[in-house]
Batch of 4 targets.
Target 1
Amino acid sequence: MKIMEINQFIHCYKLELSYFKMPYQCDGCKELGFGSCYQCNNKKCDFHLHENCGVPKPITTHSFFKNSNFKFKKKRKRGKTCKACGKDVQGFMYKFKETYLHPCWLKLPSTLNGNFNRG
Ligand SMILES: [Zn+2]
Ligand SMILES: [Zn+2]
Ligand SMILES: [Zn+2]
């Protein structure tokens, strides 16, 4: 079991990477997720993070937005909507100029197109 320490979350000292068959709500970006997930190893604590919210890239790019360098932001901003899904951004996000994206849209490039084409 991979264990990592994520210091920025005050109450959670250690988060374990585990696999979820059921959807969970990510406490970073507030979006639903399933599959691999960082979970607090305190069983009483209901804290989950997407894998890429737990270990975000500080700066990343997106093939849909040419010449863009999205920066990871932890603080939410009011009234911002995700360019990819149109829903409000309520937690972690990536920002480039006036474009905001939920972190789930900025996975590794190999899976990126698949995510956009789905549904
Ligand atoms: Zn915790
Ligand atoms: Zn997340
Ligand atoms: Zn979104």
Target 2
Amino acid sequence: MPLTAAETALIAQARQLAREQISPQAARWEQERRIGHEALAAAVALGLTRLQVPLAAGGLDFSFACKAELAEVLAGGDFGFTMSLINTHNVAAKLARDAAPAVAARYLPDLVAGRRLGCTALTEPGAGSDFAAITTLATRCDGGWRINGAKAWITNAAEADVIVLFAQTEPGSGGRGIAGFLVDGRRAGFVREPAYALGGQHSIGTGGFRLTDYLASDDELLHPPGQAFKAALGSINGARTYIAAMCNGMVADALQVAWAYGQQRSSFGQRLADHQGWRWRLAEAASELAACRLMVSRAAELIDAGQATGAPAQLAAAQAKLLACRMADRQLPALAQAMGAEGLREQHPFARHLLGARVAGFVDGSTEMLLERICAVMGG
Ligand SMILES: Cc1cc2nc3c(=O)[nH]c(=O)nc-3n(C[C@H](O)[C@H](O)[C@H](O)COP(=O)(O)OP(=O)(O)OC[C@H]3O[C@@H](n4cnc5c(N)ncnc54)[C@H](O)[C@@H]3O)c2cc1C
């Protein structure tokens, strides 16, 4: 399905945002180890936190193909900023769709205005790839649920306090007993850990938190046991697809920086771009990028056709993420090499993008889990 005029216009505005506000500030966010709030305000003004929120809830209800293109364009500015923004957006869209009206009304306005950040918490200190092994425990109590446990490696957890959290209600039952809750980080029983100190990509705001006798009311149960595991996995093909698009965006940005450099830097009496050995490297990157973009488009098409959870979408999304992550892992160092020592400067995006590609290899299904998914769909 072609993009609408409004979607195309929004993508053009996002491209400008990435070029003028995200990319120029990303190195500072990294130095200051923080989320890029300045650009978040501009993203809110464009409507990016309302992208897939239904029209009835004041959203734009744009297509998934539009979301994937936006993810590519924004990640070309900064992967971490884009992760942070999309995660807040995803919580807003989920609450508008799945939460009780009173709960949605309580949190949606602050989320879409960027006044509060959102996150989705599956991973724990003891369980990552094996989601069914989570041990955060939710037990029934008068009027709701009492939750105890810890979450780790969560995007936006450094600041987010509107949290979609998955917990086990029946230890030993695996995925069957998992339920989904809305957790408010301003309530008693919630303790945030300091943001993680990592090798980079601090604009993701990665961190964790602990819940001690946290009380969730009945209407804050988003997905009852028996339905939450499926709900969590229901959005994963979309997430894999936009992460693939983000890898494409980082390579596209690096390619453009290297190409521009090759036009003005000379060696042995001619421009770098006039050396066949130099420019072939960029032609390889551009060709692999084009292939990965097609894979993202194919997955996005299936999702927009209402087949987000079927086997074809599982396969298309897993393959798109697998190959886009590998392409970024391979091409970003090659493009940095094409810049010579200049590519090491902080003002250039290569090191930042490289770490972004490393993170992409873990979130929403590690490379190994994608290979397993591909085998499962193939009937293995
Ligand atoms: C920056 C960042 C942001 C994140 N944001 C979120 C978030 O917002 N919400 C959230 O819930 N989680 C988030 N995560 C966590 C992410 O989903 C996990 O890192 C991922 O699920 C992998 O889990 P793990 O890192 O614990 O690796 P483990 O599960 O411990 O696995 C370690 C390694 O072994 C491999 N492995 C595991 N099992 C198998 C197997 N059966 N066969 C072959 N190989 C295997 C894995 O692929 C991995 O390479 C984030 C992670 C990062 C780095």
Target 3
Amino acid sequence: MSVSLSDLKTGLSKLGLTKNLVIAHASLKAFGLIDGGAEAMLNALLDSTRGIIMPTFTYKSMLNPEVGPPRNGITYGSEADLNKLAEAYHPDVPVDKLMGVLPEILRKYPKAKRSLHPIQSFAGIRADGIIGSQRMYDPLAPIGSLADQDGWVLLLGVDHTVNTSIHYAEKLAGRLQFIRWALLQDRVVECPGFPGDSDGFNVIAPALEKHTRRVKIGNATVQAIHLKSLFKVVVDQIKENPFALLCQRPDCERCTAVRWS
Ligand SMILES: [Zn+2]
């Protein structure tokens, strides 16, 4: 059986977020067949929240230089072939496919506003101030602004490995951030504040349980997590254990760089 717009609205309304702004991450496939697809999901989200932002990242504008600063979680010069495929950033560049289909639908929505970061842009609806808070030196600032307004994270059929807000909390905890580079039409720009790796983030789930609301819609579980509470849980865990939330892959360059920082 497919999931209808009304199923989505009914399910999402149970989260009690009509007066709150949210940052959403979604896998539509996790729900099963949705009548009306991504547009229906976006409509249901707008119906059940005060406003919504999503990451609209564009990794294809990234370049890997031959040399650069040390302890940067990167092997310089290792992607010379990929550099040739890099596409210059412009404000209308589509969202990377690996972000899912929903952020691209949101970006193209008539009233959406998108920030201008060449790698880590965000788009939002009814959240212009939040989107406008981003800076080149503070790419995840919209997540901080969202928390200041009592925002929530929505994980729609996805887990914490895509929960970008955990990266914001890592920075709050003083964890090492990285530098990356992006190709613009006429030059290359340095992009500080690039976060670490998220493969190890699911271990946070039990500690977030008391700040999490949950509903099942179709085949998917939807979780809502209070953003400020999430920050506190992550910061406390990193203060207690500087290696908390890092992944176990021995070849992970960013987690390795954090361990040695
Ligand atoms: Zn890692």
Target 4
Amino acid sequence: MQLANHHAHSHFSDGRLSPREYLQEAIAQGLKTYGFSDHAPVPGSAVGLMSLEELERYLAEIDTLKQMYEEDIQVYKSLEVDYIPGVIAMDSPHILESELDYVIGAVHFVDAFADGTPWGFEESVECFERGVTEIFNGSIQAAVERYYALIREMVEDFRPTIVAHLDRIKKWNRGERFFSESSPWYLEAIDKTLVSIAEVGSIMEVNTKGYYKNETAEPYPGRRILIQSKQMGIPVHLASDAHHPENITKGFEFGTSLLLESGYEQISVLSDGEWMPAPLKPSKLHPAPFRK
Ligand SMILES: [Zn+2]
Ligand SMILES: [Zn+2]
């Protein structure tokens, strides 16, 4: 079992229960280091999950918990920051002023509907289809390519510490319902995005939420991308994206198996304020079972 999780939510954004309750569970499970990364406020937009006032309370609470639990666990302060061009990025004033220990960069919105509402493709399969139809003239390829182009822009221009759930755009694509994940255009989009990540030196997250929520057969990203990212020397972090304390290490056994199978022997873990390589420990699920 890995002893860290650095992508985690609480009731300050869309998670359940307080940060303290997550830490109590983390300590009970023997974790050594834990980072909170609630969704950052998106000022001036309807899509934010936290207000600027709540952000102040969130930051203060994590600082308090750092002190309170320093004997038991290292606590880190972060935010999952959306990249929406012209609206929010990792260099937005409220992000810089938050003095975070690290930043998770994520693309949850791809362009916008005619009324200006950002297209939150994760919301529902209906919303996914509507975005493809209305914003991209029905071209799934154009929509998916735009998603990866936004990740590259975010990575190249703002260099987040961690790139969240790289292939999240496949959330509704189980059974390849909308596109083939082995089509040349898709592989090219992935390839170009991994080149960007390797160049800037961000850590790529292996996010187990899609797996334990049974959205996808694999974590975000899956096996094919992990084999490629390993060959390109991209460091990875294993994270649960927990929205409830019961999920803080869910899917880690499978994630670990998949990483080992992809050739990874280490993951990056924030320890004593530095990102350090930590050995991946084989679990009883190794080799990883394949689930369709
Ligand atoms: Zn996310
Ligand atoms: Zn998240």
